[in-house]
Amino acid sequence: MKLRRALTTTLAAAVLPAAALVAAPGAYAAGQAGEQLPSCYDVSTANGDYEQKTIKLVQTDADGPVVRGGGWRSFRATVTNISSTTLKTLGMSVYAWRQVEDEDPVIGRFIAFEYKSKKTGSWTPVDSDASGSFVTDGVVKAGKSVTYDLRLRATADLPAHMTWGDVSVNASFTDRYRFPDGRVIACRAGETGQNPIRITDAAARPTGPARTDLRMR
Fold it and tell me: With 80 as the cut, is the pLDDT of residue 19 above it?
C-alpha cells in the first residue's frame, strides 16, 4: 500500500459531521448528514490540480520498538491550521498496517491504540470499528495547533512473523473543489503522519547461576 493510497482510502471513508453540513455553503454537493464524502484528490483526478493548504500534521515519538505482549508506549500527533480561517471539521484516526500483499491476519488486529481525552484526561480506547477514529472537538483556529496524546501496544497473540509495521495518524477535514466550469463539490482532504515500528519479544531473563561478587574483601 502506497502512502498516497492509504491517505486517499482513509479520506474517502471519512464521514462529514452533521454540523459541517449545516455550515456548508449552498454550492456544496454534500447530500444528507452521514453521507461519505469523496477524496478531494479523487475528485480532481481529471485536472490533477488539487492542493491541500489548510493543515499540517506532525507525528512524533512513534518510532522505536514495541514489545509483543508488553506495555503501552506513548507518542503524539500535532495538527496545525496553516490557513487564515477557523477549521471546524477536523477528524482524526490512527491505525497500524504493513505493506504486504494479501496478508492474513492483518497486523491491525493485534495493535491496540488509546488516546488521552482532553475533557477527562483519561486514556480511552480508539474505536477500531470506525476506521480507527478518536474524539476531537473538530475545531482549530487559524494559526493554532492542537496536540493529541496517543499510545499503542502489541498484544501477546500477535503472530511471530510480524516483526515490523507502520503506524499512520490521519487528520482530515471537509474542503471543496472547484471545477473549471465553476461547479463546486464538497470533498475530504487531509494529511498523514507515518512512522515505522519494530516489534520485538520481551528480553529473556538470565537462567545461569547467580552472579558472584568477585570484589576483594
Answer: no
